[in-house]
Amino acid sequence: MKVLISNAGSTSLKFKLFDMANETALCDARVERVGSPDSAIFTYINLQTGAKKRLEGLAVPGYTDGIDLFLRELTGENGVVGDIGEVEAVGFKTVIAQKFLGDHELTEEVMDDLARGARIAPAHNLPYIEAIRVFQRLLPSARMVGAFETDFHKTVPLERQIYSVPYEWYEKYGVRRYGYHGASHGYVAERVAALTEGRARRVISCHLGGSGSLCAIFDGKSVDSTCGFSLQSGLPHSSRAGDIDPYIFPFLLGEGLDAGEITRGITKNGGLLGVSGVSGDMRDLEAAIAQGNERARLAVEMYLHAIVSGAGALHAVLGGLDALVFTGGIGENSAMVRARVCQALAHLGLEMDASKNTGGQERRISRDGSPVEVWVIPANEEINVARRVVALLGQR
Questions:
Q1: Do residues 324 and 206 make contact, with C-beta atoms less than 8 angstroms apart?
Q2: C-beta neighbour count of 350 within 10 angstroms
């Protein structure tokens, strides 16, 4: 069975095609700057032959154009299928539909709830809705599956999901902590179990990237997470504020800001970008710190404190710790972040081996004999989603 995984962003599209008979990745592609009239970039790699193609200066005004560009390449000179009909299913790392927390074929009922969920995750749900509709038109014979990011956290006990608000809000409106980044944390749970041969029962997964969260995992299942009702919560993100006192909103309304200004401040102009005034990208911030930029330093220190305090809370929930895992763009590539977090959590039994704290490949970076193992596990959300697609459709 060939399964295509598509990741839709506000200005980007990513694709990975798998032959699930042996879980082989056949090709990897992305379209950047979707919506651009003349500066989009298309990259395609045939993973069987190693052939690469990169086109720049393209006109890709919308998702239809970007997806069509990829599908034509899929059957072209460097293609990996003879006929587009060989793609039997398309899987999406969908974010939230409150009534559908697991893996579901994307019926109109699910799509309607995905649209309703756009009020919670507009930056994520709206691009996915558009991309799904395009795939439904261009690949009418393929089955569309949503592997919802909230699924991995359905094992969290209710007392850790509920907010201290009127209970009717939970019953009537679904106001609760959903948890996110489930494909990443779920992959980490599977991989760390294999890497440690089951030794690591109590795990904290640190998905650190443009968006981030920590997850407490016990025996392969999520038992708590730093993310809450929306992806605006938890750790500071690249440009989203993360956890803030909710009364800041009505206070700023009283100071003369309108709801739109405040919402933009906490969703687009907050987080690392908002505090640093430089960038939401950790690479830019580390470079700025090296040049003596104090606001960049302040933003990073704030970020590190949030990770350390979040990990401390999850350690308490787990009642101990066997492994700490770094994943996501920052987790995989920032040696500084890993070193600082491990240094701050050394009292929990983490003993980092500085000589191993380089590069981004999968590896253990703790010393031999460290009471708590520390791992870098590059996120492979696509295979997690592909496996879930196969599991769902195999039931039919």
A1: yes
A2: 23
Instruction: Calculate mean pLDDT across residues 16-30.
Output: 94
The answer to pTM > 0.85 is yes
Question: Which residues, in sequence order, are CB contacts of 96 under 8 Å at separation 6+?
Answer: 114, 117, 120, 121, 124, 125, 148, 149, 150, 178, 180
- Does the pLDDT at position 396 exceed 60? no
Residue 117's identity, in one-letter code, is: G
| Dihedral (CA of 344, 312, 287, 185) sign | positive
